[in-house]
Records
---
Amino acid sequence: MKKRINAPASLIIIASLAGCQTTPQPLAADTIIAGGQIFDGSGGAGRNADIAIRDGMILYIGPNASSRYSAENTVDAKGLIVSPGFIDPHTHAGSDLASDTAKRRANLPFAFQGVTTVVIGNDGGGKPDIAAIAGAAKANGIGTNAAYLVGFGPVREAVLAKANRAPTQAELAKMKSLVGTAMCEGAWGLSAGLYYVPQSYSQTDEVVALAKVAGEAGGYYDTHMRDESTYNVTVTGAVAETLEIGRRADLPVHIAHIKALGPAVWGHSARMIAMIEEAQASGQRVTADQYPWEASGTRISSALVPRDALEGGLPALRERLGDPAQIPAIRAGIAAAIERRGGADRLLITGRLSGSDAPVGKTLAQLAEMREVSPADAAIDVLRMGDARLASFNMSAQDIAAFADQEWVVTGSDGSNGHPRKYGSFPKAYRDLVHGEAQMGIARFIRRSTGKTADIIGLDRRGYLKVGYHADVVIFDPSTFAPNANYSAPRALSSGVQHLYVNGVPVITGGAYTGALPGEPLLKDTQC
Ligand SMILES: [Zn+2]
């Protein structure tokens, strides 16, 4: 393993050496990427140039790299697009990256989309022991870089377990200290999933108190909002809460997988966008990410079961389902949630969980028909044995397009098992936005998948192709870059990424995985 040298210092040495030589000798580089069309992540137009990489950093961008540098490897990128590696601000790759299996730690579902950095810990799920998680990633090796968010969920559960109440002052102080420690250990911000139990038991004040701690450390607030539909405060009420949290805690807010979920709120994108733009005009930093799919990915329990029936988790729910007196209320709540999501024929079962016998590939409507029960009772049947993953077709194409058009919306995957978004989001966004009706320029697509995202997270010298920046680079074929995953076969690697460099090391060469694990845990440098 080569020793990593400090890039800016090495560049100065190289520059001064070059200046005093009368007959310049080619300088050493590890890799030259020659002849590609470079988009640097700033949104500027593409240009034909070469890139030289050494010791994990970008050494040179310009013409004729091979006349200036001698390199062990030269990649012919003619006809290909050279871009900063994509940065995914919302994933559920944490368990893959912590796996005992090197192949899972390679993070290939993302690498083959051109992603070189994933954020993990989203939806309020990130465990607060950032140093331990990052230390294991460093020791065992990971295929892409990972950046960490501390999650409201584990923080709240560590102090309050699953209790449905507000914390006492002492309990809140404990939660704040957990967030503070995680920020000191390198988290980039606080994530929340206020829709999910037990985070849903919190009031806004509690979240503000914790977000303040993240903000004081220079972090951001990333949220799966309390409501994306009409479950409780409605989606516009949830946007208002998010903006309030950002204002009161004085930190940037980032809305995860922005959407208007269900026919009752279709068209509400206009109001949501207006609220966000108004906040931005008053000086607030507000951004969002979006995945390019009409179906969200969820579970029967989280999508359909009333929150009070979920108190205590799935085992407690199963107990309640054993009590005939409690069933009518639960059934009514489930029926209302099915309605809210547009009906049982819009809910596709994509995976079994916890030992259920749910038929994968059937809709909840089909399951109800097979079993000759109502859709709500069919869902209850599944929940008696376990749970099931759902693709919930609940978004309108108009809302998706309206959000995609915003300059403050970036590409994300929300990649999790049982949904093609884990394997295909970036190429699908590329297909939809650049080659679809939106006619988005490729420079803008790359900007919203790289530099803009790096700026939101606050990553150091990533997200752009610039001299002195880390060499996270994707080289893809614009004519073949495409997803292969779909709802019935969600686990298919994407096509079109010819080469992928993570910290200057090839992870994909000639369209194939190299076996390398050069990803770094990226830790925010917070002075504590
Ligand atoms: Zn989420």
---
Amino acid sequence: MDLHNGSLFWPTTAAETFHERKKLPIDDHYDVLIIGGGMSGALCAYTLLQENLKIALVDKRVMATGSSSANTGLLQFSNDIMLFELIEQIGEEKAVRFYKLCQSAIGQLENIANTAAKDSDFIRRKSICFASTDEDIKKVQKEYAVLKKHGFPVSYWTEEDMKQHLPFSKPAALITHGDAEVNPFTFVRGILDYVEHKGGHLFENAEVTNVTEKKDHVSIETSIGTFHASQIIYAIGYETPPIGEKIGADINRSYAIATQPIDDLSEWEGRSLIWETKRPYLYMRTTADGRIIAGGLDEDEPEAPQSEDWINNRAHRLKQEIEKLFPMMDIQIAYAWGASFGESLDNLPFIGKHPDKKRQYYLLGYGGNGTVYSMLGSHILKDLILQRPNPDAEIVKLDR
Ligand SMILES: Cc1cc2nc3c(=O)[nH]c(=O)nc-3n(C[C@H](O)[C@H](O)[C@H](O)COP(=O)(O)OP(=O)(O)OC[C@H]3O[C@@H](n4cnc5c(N)ncnc54)[C@H](O)[C@@H]3O)c2cc1C
């Protein structure tokens, strides 16, 4: 399955995109084998290494070249499902706890960026989520009130406030503070290099073809040989339908562009992350080298688009959306891509132990906040694997 097509921006920012990893012999036994070397697998490996576990990471591709290289790199504590909606869905305690976990995950990602992935342009930003229509003003007000009540750093802007801060105006906006942007490709690559340096075993171009649970271990057949591990984690992204069948998931596709660097971004208040209340939404951010990245126009098709003309057509529409907000900027498309994109039907990720298997775990960060889910999920799985209590696991478990 092609996870993405078109021209990706992030891989062009890395010095040696496809440097060969050291070829290692397969050890007799690993504590944990992680299938998938994207954002989820890399963060799991990082988190488990802190516990001195012996880790193997296997990927059928070159690592970091799956969906994680198509990621637009917005990190937010707000989710596709607003907090007040999540409260209606799962109750106040769990919903607020989930939002708090997302907020903490941004701090954990920042720590990793400062230590293991220093070239990842992690920058704290505020987010501006504007009401797409007058009807959505109430929604923004309700969300503002509930976030404020639970101590999240938020502000509310009226239409007048917006005019003072930005060259465009919308009926209202919710401002969340303490979000961030990152270059997801160099971030994952940095973590993988760190994991390798700290003794994790990385195997690229190694497809897992069969997994069998034995009495005291798991046997994992791959295209390069058989591995044995005490536990395994599936961090396989959007390619295989999740086992959370009770809940279900949709694989759709989405589009993004990166522009040529813009001469003057001073009209872009705080270089904020900009998105909206409409679903699916349009969103934009800037990059460390002064580009604009915009994404959206989701379509109900599971496969990444094949046609270059189709991708270019969507890219042009994204460019027009930027021009509507920032008409003074000269927008030239430099990169345009389309990619598969997974969302669970209840807007929560799938993280946890397989309900019927003893030694198999999943980390599937479905949803627009996938990176934040990968981070918080790596901590939940660490606890489950080490048999430590983790009450948060209940919120995202596979058979919820
Ligand atoms: C256009 C777009 C924009 C996005 N924007 C954002 C954003 O702004 N912020 C955000 O947080 N998230 C965003 N996301 C989501 C984010 O990209 C995902 O959450 C993230 O990439 C998921 O990482 P992963 O490791 O689960 O998947 P991947 O990066 O796809 O890694 C999974 C790996 O598993 C490997 N694999 C699968 N099956 C096997 C097998 N049988 N054997 C061996 N290896 C296997 C694959 O080769 C792949 O490398 C966006 C996604 C898209 C498509």
